[in-house]
Amino acid sequence: MVLGLSLQTFTQLHVIISLIGIAAGLLTLLAMITSEKPSHWTGLFLWSTLLTSITGFLFPVSVLTPAIIVGIISTAVLAVALASYYLFHLRSHWRWIYVASALFALYLNCFVGVVQSFQKIEPLNAFAPNGNEPPFMVAQGALLLAFLMLGYLAIRRFHPERALNA
Q1: Res 93 pLDDT > 90
Q2: CA nearest 90: which of 24, 25, 161?
Q3: For residues 99 and 42, what is the distance between their CA atoms, to the nearest angstrom?
Q4: Which of 18, 148, 161, 162 has its CA at 20 to 30 Å from residue 68's CA atom?
């Protein structure tokens, strides 16, 4: 049991929070690329992604796993994104620091989503049962390439000060 929930129920809750974070993150990314002012999706993305990491730490594990390491990195990166957004209001260099840290956190959430998909979805698992086969590597490589390209666009185009003054 975790937080009074069965492990299965807690896992489902963790996955739902993660999917909310990914969906809100993709909408936030779209807003960055189109240089729209930050919306309610931004806060939902940041806080649900942080909650994803926090709930990930609550699973009953007794050793340091790759998932825990990703969670630690994600939490640290989200702390930077949250500070950039809420404390420094995206001013000056905090704009690109926010974009880079928020998108890295979103990437990590999506990276884990791909890992979990290959582990849990039978047709994908058939292509890469060990998680090191070419289909898995291609999926992760495509994800990384997409995030690098979209991140570049977001850093170049996201100027909330212009959107707020419009």
Answers
A1: yes
A2: 161
A3: 11
A4: 148
